[in-house]
Amino acid sequence: MKDQASLGAVTDRDARLRWGVIATGKIASVVTEDLHRVDEVEVLAVSSRSQARATEFAERHRIPRAYDDYRRLLADPDIDVVYIATPHSQHHEVAKAALIAGKHVLCEKPFTLTVAEAEDLAALARIHGRFLMEAMWTRFNPLIQQLRTLVADGVLGQVHTISADFGFAHRYDPTHRLWDPAQGGGALLDLGVYPISFAHMLLGEPIGLEAHGALAPSGVDADTGLLLRYPDGGHAVLRCSLRAALDARAGISGPLGRIDLPELFFRPTELIVRITGEEPVTHSIELDGAGYTYQLREVCRGIRAGEVESPQLTHAESIAVQRTLVAAMETVGARVG
């Protein structure tokens, strides 16, 4: 295997990285606007299954090239890196093709639908010497970075308990991507990945889990409650739902106090540290754009450094989160694919 430091490094520090956007849905639109906020980025192309949609998206977001097939975008020799915002079920197919085509990849969460698919992408990134990262933007938010430092510095003592919820009521429609197993639907894959990744970030991969949920008529999970178990009694209590409005809050507790992330915990603008016997201390920020710029800059940094993964969100971590997601879906009997 090649030395990681030599893989795909960008030698011209002044050259902009040229991005292609694959898919034209809501998330792609928001992230593309944040891409325009990153100085070292040029958004060069977009692809959709429809030329009309691709052209409309390109005109709306000031993108010079529009393709009616992601394969045509991947064949464009001027594209350095792609952002994949397709339905979950297409992540592996598109990311695999991008890596083989020599493109660096930022792929929306969840990384894939199966552990084997996630492992395959990680292996391909190393074989082809291309940067690959799951788009878990929460990890790169400045307050989440501060939270990780506070926990690592022991301000709470040993963390024993984490809680996190994310849910909203969405009308059932078996053809909608959220309810369709063929498109990777279900509360766990679309929403649960956030609290699960949050728990993994602070406590690591659990040694076991319990899950209870309700299935939609299509077979995907409509909502799921999770208890992740860790050594020494540590645990995470997590909830996700497509049929109930849940507070998107998170809390981290230890013997010395707790840290609260009010809504929305996955893109926080406020963090409250409550040490027992002391006055609460609130830290706040104003987000740069919609909040995706932080992860976009990390992708650019990693590419220029010649890395194949981010040290803040390694391939192994994304694969571990995938294992927990799959185990939870199997426990509640949810369909996927």
UniProtKB/TrEMBL annotation:
Gfo/Idh/MocA-like oxidoreductase N-terminal domain: residues covered: 17-133
Keyword Zinc: no
Cited InterPro entries: Gfo/Idh/MocA-like_OxRdtase_N (IPR000683), Gfo/Idh/MocA_domain (IPR050984), GFO_IDH_MocA-like_dom (IPR055170), NAD(P)-bd_dom_sf (IPR036291)
Ranges for domain GFO/IDH/MocA-like oxidoreductase: 144-259
Keywords: Oxidoreductase
Keyword Ribosomal protein among record annotations: no
One Pfam family matching this protein: GFO_IDH_MocA_C3
Coiled-coil region: none
GO molecular function, one term: nucleotide binding
Family of the protein in this entry: Belongs to the Gfo/Idh/MocA family.
Protein's UniProt name: Dehydrogenase
Species annotation: Actinoalloteichus hymeniacidonis
